[in-house]
Amino acid sequence: MLRGGDKMRIIVVSDTHGDFWSLHEIVEKHQRDADFFIHLGDGARELAEIKEMYPDRLFYSVRGNCDLGSREKEVGTITAGEVKILYTHGHLYHVKYGLYDLEALARENHAQIALYGHTHRGETQYEDGLYIMNPGSPSRPRDSDPSYGIVDITKAGIVLNLVKIKP
């Protein structure tokens, strides 16, 4: 069910790489307007601290290639409203070389949204019924400003937004 009957907001973060404060700032900013948060890996340590600080908030996460020792899964799915979301760090699906493997995985899982990280480059796209987002990195961006993502699911449709963080 959509919150208030009309909207669901998901905050998407990836590749914080030990930067507790950038993650904290994002969670603090959106703790009241987000239905839940998704961390796409390479930030397990700081996410564990954030979860302790915000026990009433809902967090989903996956393990990234730098989350050594993490017991998190590598791929997750969740249904938000009536929209299925697939989320992964992306390294196992070769996202630095293209999105073919990620798109195939999302379609096999009947997802309408695919979220991934790993490249540290924020981007959104829509391809034949599939919304795809990489939120970038709030702490170690590559070739762009620090960023994170917002996914809004409404009765009218799905909107993906990259939020640029001014250094």
Commentary on this structure:
- Helices cover 18% and strands 34% of the residues.
- The protein has 167 residues and is of the alpha/beta class.
- It has a single domain (7-164), classed as Metallo-dependent phosphatases (Purple Acid Phosphatase, chain A, domain 2), CATH 3.60.21.
- The protein has a 5-stranded mixed sheet with strand order 3-2-1-9-10, covered by helices on one side. Strands 4-5-6-8-7 form a 5-stranded mixed sheet, covered by helices on one side.
- α1 links the parallel β1 and β2.
- α1 (20-30) crosses α2.
List keywords for this structure.
alpha/beta, 167 residues, 5-stranded mixed beta sheet, Purple Acid Phosphatase, chain A, domain 2, 18% helix, 10 strands
Mean pLDDT: 94
Helices and strands, in order, run as EHEHEEEHEEEEE
In angstroms, what is the radius of gyration? 15 Å
User: Could you list the spans in which at least 5 consecutive residues all have pLDDT below 50?
Assistant: none
- The overall number of domains is 1
Strand content: 25-35%
Please give the count of helices.
3
What is the topology, as strand order, of the major beta sheet? 3-2-1-9-10
**Helix percentage:** 10-25%
CATH architecture: 4-Layer Sandwich
CATH superfamily: Metallo-dependent phosphatases
Structural class: alpha/beta
Q: Quick one: how many beta strands?
A: 10
Major sheet: size, sense and barrel closure? 5 strands, mixed
